[in-house]
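so my prof wants the structure for this chain in the tokens format not the other one, which i didnt know existed until like an hour ago. anyway here's the sequence
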Amino acid sequence: MPFRNRRIRFTLLALAVAVTGLSAAGPAVAATPPPATSQTRETDPPTDFVDLAPSPLRAEGSRHVTVTYRNSGTTTVMVAPQLLLLSPDAGPYLTPADLTVERRTGHGCWVPVELGSQTGTLYTDLTGAQRRLDPGETLTERYRVTVANPAARGVVQPRVALYG
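here's what i got, hopefully its the right format
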């Protein structure tokens, strides 16, 4: 029986120490401000854009577009590649039915990319495309643009969104 009493006493003592330690650390931990981070959330808007060379939208066949950006800075940055498909100023405006955009995966497969539309401009979403680039790293994203409507006209404008 003495062995059982020691086990109970030890368990109670360990429980008392744990509760006392947590309650003593509670206010100190609560008063500590969260550490400052340079991380951006996916909901933060871009702070700048780097426009790359535009090219005319070709009505025949598929066209490959490569978006490349090198982090030449000394800190890690959050970036997102984006394609803008601009309609002619005089119209007619492009619609998502006029073309398809696909992104090449690291395994070499082409996956469809959803397009948003606003005032005659089609665009790829930035939220799911965000990447973290360490200093010296290069982002290379490959897209394939296929025109379904031979009457479609416009310009392909690749760019990179910068965060933070």
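also thought this was worth mentioning. The longest strand covers residues 77-86.
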